[in-house]
Specification:
The structure holds 2 protein chains of 2 kinds.
Chain A: H1 3-20, H2 27-33, E1 37-42, E2 47-49, E3 57-63, E4 66-72, E5 75-82, E6 87-88, H3 91-96, E7 103-106, E8 110-116, H4 117-126, H5 130-154, H6 157-167, H7 171-174, H8 177-183, H9 188-200
Antiparallel strand pairs in A: 1-8, 2-7, 3-6, 3-8, 4-5, 4-7
Chain B: H1 2-10, H2 17-26, E1 28-32, E2 37-39, E3 47-53, E4 56-62, E5 65-72, E6 77-78, H3 81-86, E7 93-96, E8 100-106, H4 107-116, H5 118-144, H6 147-157, H7 159-164, H8 167-173, H9 178-191
Helix pairs in contact in B: 4-5
Chain lengths: 201, 199
């Protein structure tokens, strides 16, 4: 077995661990799924999906950091930051097979495990339990989307900032400040001010 | 009444007659008055509601303000879906706007169906995916389009709702201040005097 295969095996083991956090997929069913999956690597700032492209993949981050953003009148708005164990894609484009409005881009050198749209449909037809897993994955993404949305609405800027940094302490180092500010819906000036607050704490 | 449900299902899947019948046998028909709360904050959602006749809305509270995320008319599904599928407490309220008749499917009944009927399990996955995507569409609309664009897009797609839904609900759904909403309405009246829904 070459080194490449060993690395692939490690990726799949991590994937299984991530999936088992929210679904009851067992190893046997998972092994059946592997032939449908791909491991993809992206350099820093490479796009997984460009605006206007049709997204062919559902991805889970194994290593690295990926963001989803959209161009608006106010500039780039970051909609999602995905680190190890998180799903990311242009979901409307993927499911409806239409050009993407959003851009999905690697912030760090990134490894994702992906399933292509047509392979996913195949898996649904051929692998028992794939439907249940598919539903759990969508549910997981849905819960995260809702939770983030409520956070943005119900919490003050300061609460949002402090809670996010407490829960994701490494992100201040990993994500450019401008992007993190956009993701948290905080003005860049306010963001800098809040960061100073953090140093005093 | 079944035809309207059949039409909804047809957009997702070709359901065998046997599975459609099983689904219909598991469904409860519920008729409620206007302004009835079907699901409240922090309750666990037990039902998917499919509107046969009438109108319902889904909203959450931002302080005391109600923020509407969905207005469901005939042929559409409404539910506090994250709560329904995950069992977590609902962050939303589901309430009727008009006297409304629903097909409602209880979660326990639904799960019995999925164990027996593979196409119904697939339908369930496709429906939850669609509800998830609707949320994304709603969010992207608010980012991509300005107030006037959001107003015009909605009125073009849903002219009949303009008459049926109280203006403050439409304004909330479109994230437009009530004063601005009135102003936009007048603007539209002048520009499109032949628009049937504004006469």
């Amino acid at each position: 077995m070459g080194e490449k295969n060993i690395v692939a095996r490690e990726c799949y083991e991590q994937l299984l661990a991530h999936l088992q956090r929210f679904s009851d997929i067992n190893r046997e069913a998972f092994e059946q799924l592997i032939p449908y999956l791909e491991i993809r690597r992206f350099d820093k700032r490479k796009t997984l999906v460009g605006q206007g492209e049709i997204d062919d993949y559902l991805n889970i981050v194994i290593k690295g950091l990926v963001r989803k953003y959209i161009h608006s009148e106010k500039g780039e708005i970051t909609l999602q930051l995905a680190t190890e164990g998180h799903f990311i894609q242009s979901e409307i484009s993927f499911h409806h097979r239409e050009p993407s409005q959003v851009i999905v881009e690697a912030i760090e050198p990134t490894i994702v495990v992906s399933i292509r749209y047509d392979h996913m449909q195949d898996a649904f037809n051929k692998i028992p339990g794939a439907e249940t897993l598919g539903q759990s994955i969508v549910m997981q993404m849905f819960i995260k989307k809702d939770a983030r949305y409520f956070d943005q609405l119900k919490k003050t800027t300061r609460e949002r900032f402090l809670e996010y940094i407490d829960n994701h302490p490494h992100m201040l180092q990993r994500v450019p400040q401008k992007i993190l500010a956009s993701y948290l819906n905080i003005k860049p000036e306010t963001f800098s001010r809040l960061k100073h607050l953090l140093q005093k704490r | 009444m079944v035809a309207i449900l059949q039409k909804y299902i047809d957009q997702f899947i070709d359901l065998p007659a046997e599975e459609l019948e099983a689904l219909i046998n598991s469904i409860e028909v519920r008729s409620v008055d206007k302004k009835v709360r079907l699901t409240d904050m922090n309750e666990t959602e037990k039902y998917l509601y499919f509107v046969i006749k009438g109108l319902a809305r889904k909203f959450f509270y931002k302080g005391k303000e109600e923020v509407i995320t969905q207005i469901a008319k005939e042929g559409e599904l409404i539910s506090s879906s994250v709560s329904y599928f995950s069992g977590m407490p609902s962050g939303y309220v589901i309430e009727t706007i008009e006297p409304t008749t629903f097909y409602s499917l209880h979660k326990d009944k639904a799960e019995q169906l999925y164990n027996r009927y593979p196409k119904l399990e697939r339908l369930s996955r496709l429906v939850i995916t669609e509800l998830f995507l609707q949320k994304e569409v709603w969010e992207l609309e608010r980012i991509r389009y300005n107030t006037k664009e959001r107003f015009l897009r909605f009125m073009t797609d849903n002219p009949e709702l303009f008459q049926r839904v109280p203006q403050k609900y439409l304004a909330s759904y479109l994230n437009i201040k009530p004063e601005t909403f009135s102003r936009l309405k007048h603007l539209l009246q002048k520009k499109n005097s032949d628009a049937p829904y504004l006469k």
